[in-house]
Design a protein that fits this description.
Blueprint (H helix, E strand, L loop, with lengths): L23 H4 L2 E5 L2 E5 L5 E2 L7 E4 L2 E4 L1 E6 L5 E7 L6 E6 L15 E10 L2 E10 L5 E10 L5 H4 L9 E2 L3 E2 L3 E7 L5 E9 L4 E2 L3 E8 L5 E11 L12 H17 L3 E4 L2 H17 E4 L2 E4 L11 H11 L4 H13 L19 E2 L3 H5 L6 E2 L5 H16 L2 H19 L45 E2 H20 L3 H22 E2 L4 E2 L2 E2 L5 E2 L5 H8 L4 H11 L32 H13 L3 H17 L31 H4 L1 H10 L1 E4 L4 E5 L9 E9 L2 E9 L5 E9 L3 E5 L1
Parallel strand pairs: 30-34
Antiparallel strand pairs: 1-2, 2-4, 3-6, 4-5, 6-11, 7-8, 8-9, 9-10, 10-18, 11-17, 12-14, 13-14, 14-15, 15-18, 16-17, 19-31, 20-21, 22-23, 24-27, 25-26, 27-28, 29-30, 31-32, 32-33
Helix pairs in contact: 5-6, 5-8, 6-8, 6-9, 8-9, 8-10, 9-10, 10-11, 10-12, 12-14, 14-15, 14-17, 15-17
């Protein structure tokens, strides 16, 4: 399939594409999430689903609310302001009436004020409407709230067509609530319960009407709860708690979540806004599973557990919140493939790619109910395990998941390297699976210099680097567990892979590692950002690492907003594509970590500066999943990609990860020490404070500031428990 800016190509010829008849960047929807529920609202707080619109309320991959609209006297109100709070907890919209003399005699523009406050919690959307009149005398106002539920599967919203759907049930209307229900082809009943407090003057299956008598300046307050119910819960009787007590409980839970993360503050207020939004996005995207916290990948298309995304987010934030990485490891270990299942691209020991809960997944209309079609999640899982042990010294957790690590290594050695050439390749096992199974999973993202798409099985350069790092990590874990023979064997495997890799993947003319080897072992001689991941994993030798670092930070790779996925001038280069010339913040953060690993910390600071520049221009200072790769222009921001998720977990993790790369932050659990090696502060930061940075049961506050000649000085401002900080050059 040719590159098209309006498609995300997945699977066979883009079967699982994301349609973009309109742009999320253009709409800039207001986004909320809590656990398994998320919502996209318009700026006025309404939700209007339809052609090109993803607005609505979603629960477990199904849209439970497809329309919600507020009218005053039958007329849509005017928007005054709309904002999501800095902690992502609450959407607040201020509205007023337009000129309504024809429908409401005597009611001029701007005399009725409506404030909508919304938040999500425990499978429901809670809303309070506060209505005030500024007419000098008592005024009667009609308030109408229309609603509908289409129960569309998320993949339908993304653009897929279904031959058959389940059955919408007859609405059930009571004085204070209405239940809209759907019986799916999967046998699961899903229901949307719309509840009001107090009961409206009229309630029907499509909306409610309030007749308000408003005295000047005296507020009328209405409560609304939209509950997403599944299975037996869809039949339960309504029990609608009041807005304020629920909000207080929600706020208490949110404060606990925020206290678990360290604080980052600098002298640059705009950077403070960007990093605070990034941390708030991460906290919002984390969902508590029975195995621990897990960062869902992104909203709206990927609000579920993805293996690769969760692992990379864990690696990005490990220095700040190691408990998140522990949750990722335990969840993925619990969901590791045990048997071979071609339909799910599953093989024993393989780590999850994606899990879905919607009707289409449960019926097998899409293969993602529990899908394992990612070649890199398995080595990345072992990498995260090693990094977690190095960060925390938590050998007990590693001992618990060691059988899963061994199973992952077994998959790498056998199923991953089916032809025994020493490299891990991928190839889907059915026509329904993803055709490309690295992080660049568009159907056109792996190709030769001529532009011809590569035939499988395909060995990606970065996957070999991840396998190398996984074996190094597993060797250290085995040694910590007292298994020296296994540690030595794994180390020998890593060394042997390094020699094979340099011979097969380095291209002197390209000055980079090639993108991949195809099924005939022919190199894909393409200049792609994947080579930067070889630095991230530590597989490159020092000399070639320096060459790669130099190349990635210059045109045609560097756009000014970051490093492109594909260098300009390559045959399939398109700055508006998903993977062939766009800029991905997470990709840049991994490259920045690789640059720092090879001693190029100033280059890492340049990557951080470019991403921060992009965040300055973004809505809510939030880095999206990706943006277009057009060159940076004076007085202009980056060009948006039309269907980019925002927030996206590994995009939110990009700024913290780049900051860690610049600071050279490390941890020595045995010495109870936080370490900084050759730290660099980017030009836009003169001082930086880290608050409540954890190590074991202790926390520390550290201030770093730029001294003479660009050097960085460090001071400990506070500590709680047995912990210290050191700086080395």
């Amino acid at each position: 399939m040719d590159d098209q800016p309006h498609l995300r190509a997945e699977g066979d010829a883009g079967r699982y594409f994301i349609s973009a008849t309109s742009s999320l960047a253009e709409q800039q929807p207001r986004t909320l999430k809590a656990g398994d529920i998320f919502a996209l609202f318009g700026h006025s707080g309404d939700a209007t689903a339809g052609s090109g619109s993803a607005e609505g309320l979603y629960y477990r991959d199904t849209r439970y609310l497809s329309r919600m609209s507020l009218r005053i006297g039958g007329v849509a109100p005017m928007l005054l302001s709309s904002a999501v709070s800095s902690d992502n907890a609450m959407l607040t919209c201020d509205l007023t009436n337009p000129n309504m003399l024809e429908v409401e005699p005597g009611l001029e523009q701007g005399q009725i004020h409506v404030r909508r406050a919304k938040f999500l919690w425990r499978g429901a959307c809670h809303e309070r409407l506060t209505v005030r009149s500024f007419v000098p005398e008592r005024t009667r106002v009609t308030l109408q709230i229309d609603f509908a539920a289409d129960f569309a599967d998320l993949f339908e919203v993304r653009g897929m067509k279904r031959a058959r759907r389940g059955q919408l049930m007859a609405p059930r209307v009571e004085p204070a609530h209405c239940v809209l229900a759907y019986e799916g082809l999967d046998g699961v009943r899903r229901a949307t319960r719309v509840s009001f407090e107090p009961a409206p003057a009229h309630l029907g299956p499509r909306g409610a009407t309030y007749e308000l008598a408003l005295d000047p300046g005296v507020p009328a307050t209405l409560g609304l709860q939209i509950s997403c119910l599944e299975g037996e819960a869809a039949e339960e009787a309504a029990d609608v708690p009041h807005f304020v007590p629920v909000m207080h409980e929600f706020r208490k839970e949110l404060r606990r979540a925020h206290r678990a993360w360290p604080g980052i503050e600098t002298d640059n207020e705009i950077f403070n806004e960007s990093i605070s939004r990034a941390l708030a996005d991460l906290i919002m995207l984390v969902t508590n599973t029975q195995d621990g916290p897990y960062p869902y990948a992104g909203i709206p298309w990927f609000s579920t557990a993805f293996g690769r995304d969760g692992i990379i987010t864990g690696l990005q934030t490990l220095w700040l919140a190691p408990a998140l990485s522990r949750g990722v490891l335990l969840y993925l270990a619990a969901n590791q493939a045990q048997h071979s299942d071609p339909a799910a691209d599953a093989e024993p020991g393989k780590i999850l790619h994606e899990v879905r809960h919607g009707e289409m997944a449960l019926l097998g209309e899409v293969p993602f109910r529990r899908y394992y079609g990612s070649v890199d999640s398995t080595p990345l899982f072992v990498m995260l395990a090693g990094a977690y042990l190095e960060r925390t010294g938590d050998l007990a957790t590693l001992r618990t998941i060691w059988p899963h690590i061994e199973a992952a290594l077994g998959w790498i050695d056998h199923y991953g390297d089916a032809d025994g050439d020493g490299f891990v390749e991928y190839g889907r096992r059915t026509e329904a699976g993803l055709v490309n199974q690295g992080w660049k999973d568009s159907s056109d993202s792996i190709f030769h210099a001529s532009g011809k798409l590569a035939d499988g099985p395909i060995a990606l350069c970065e996957v070999q680097a991840y396998v190398f790092a996984a074996r190094v990590a597993a060797s250290k874990i085995a040694a910590a567990l007292g298994d020296e023979p296994r540690a030595a064997s794994l180390e020998a495997q890593a060394i042997a892979l390094r020699d094979r890799f340099e011979h097969a993947f380095w291209d002197p003319e390209l000055g980079l590692y090639v993108l991949a080897l195809d099924g005939r072992k022919a190199p894909c001689r393409v200049a792609a950002s994947n080579a930067g991941h070889v630095l991230f994993a530590g597989l490159a030798d020092a000399e070639r690492g320096a060459l790669i670092a130099d190349k990635l930070l210059k045109p045609p790779f560097f756009s000014g907003w970051g490093i492109r996925t594909l260098a300009a001038g390559q045959v399939r280069y398109n700055p508006m594509s998903y993977h062939n010339g766009s800029v991905w913040p997470h990709d840049n953060s991994m490259i920045a970590a690789g640059l720092a690993r090879y001693g190029h910390r100033s280059a890492a600071a340049r990557v951080l500066s470019s991403l921060f520049g992009a965040a300055r221009h973004a809505d809510l200072r939030r880095l999206p999943e990706l943006f277009c790769g057009f060159p940076r222009m004076r007085n202009q921001g980056p060009t948006s990609y039309p269907v980019a998720c925002a927030p996206q977990a590994w995009a939110a993790g990009a700024l913290p990860a780049c900051l860690a790369a610049c600071l050279g932050v490390g941890f020595d659990p045995a010495r109870r020490a936080v370490t900084f090696t050759n730290p660099v502060l980017p030009d836009f930061i003169h001082w930086l404070k880290l608050r409540n940075l954890p190590l074991g049961d202790a926390t520390i506050d550290i201030v770093l500031h730029r001294a003479e000649a660009g050097a960085v000085a460090m001071a400990v401002s506070s500590r709680r428990g047995d912990i210290l900080a050191t700086m080395t050059s």
